[in-house]
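Revision sheet: structure tokens.
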Amino acid sequence: MEVVKIDNATRVYKIGTMETQALRGVNLSIENGEFTALVGPSGSGKTTLLQLIGCLDQPSSGAVWVDGKDVTRLNRNQRADMRRGHIGFIFQFFALIPTLTAYENVEMPLLLNGHSPSERRERVMELLKAVDLVERAKNRPDQLSGGQQQRIAIARALAPKPALVLADEPTANLDTENGTQVMQIMEKLNKETGVTFVFATHDPRVMKYARRIVTLRDGLIVENNGNGKNS
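Predicted:
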């Protein structure tokens, strides 16, 4: 089953009289359960493509389906609902709320989605255990290492049980040991839960773990290797 389908998507950015064509007619399908990396040099279009999939931006032309819905036909509020309920995000700079504890950061998506206190506690503790940070539940982000913060961000992304998790350069601010650990955790969660992971990256550590690599250059897909699924 396809969790993402992109049909001839273009994205043109206009600044005054100047135009930059970030995507030039991209076609891509990603099936449920994939562990896929979007790679390419700076300016290749990989982050733009990730933003279209994540309902953070819209194509200038073409269509994008996520979890069976044509998100190009949704209004702003409907796209926000898609992000909140169907898509998890992992960012380069972690994007944790600094005044909240690790537990509260993971809990936040569940609060927004109206889960009961008992449901929230069960899910948060399950995820803190999965990323091996139960003992850090009461710590704020400034009391955690970079690797620990990214593991909390992974747990938060998975909290609402999304169909899809998008990660933009998830290892860029981590040393080799922590970057490898983060990738191993995401790979393990992908295999255990079946949630689809899509990364935008230039990091060889991420590419090493990806089961499918989609290479972009100048706004076009130039290579598409692997099927992204567990063998």
